[in-house]
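#struct-help
A.M.: can someone run this one for me? Single chain, 118 residues.
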Amino acid sequence: MPKILIADDDTTMLGLLTTLMELEGNQVVTVTRPEDIIPAVRREGPALILMDYHLAGGDAMGPLVELKQSEDLKRIPVVVTSGMDRETVCLRAGAESFLLKPFRPAQLLAKIHELSEP
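D.P.: on it. Structure tokens below:
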């Protein structure tokens, strides 16, 4: 059962994403603040990270850059979501993919399956 870390401060979205990921057979770990992302990744060792661009207390770009500069963490695929078009910024910071909200669950699942293939 792959582990996915979800970073989102919207409790409704967090609940929906958690349910979707669990229905797909994934184990889910959640965080709501940018400063909790790196410690959770180090502690939990997720196979993939799904993070919202805007989080309580800031945005996810700092942790994204830190992840992608870390030799032991940079291989973990990251999908960033946002209600505003931040695709260029996110991809330049190292994200493997970006999804503009609102997105369909099938879009997210297709992206995750694409990034999870060897």
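A.M.: thanks! The chain has one domain: 3-113.
D.P.: also worth noting: The mean pLDDT is 95.
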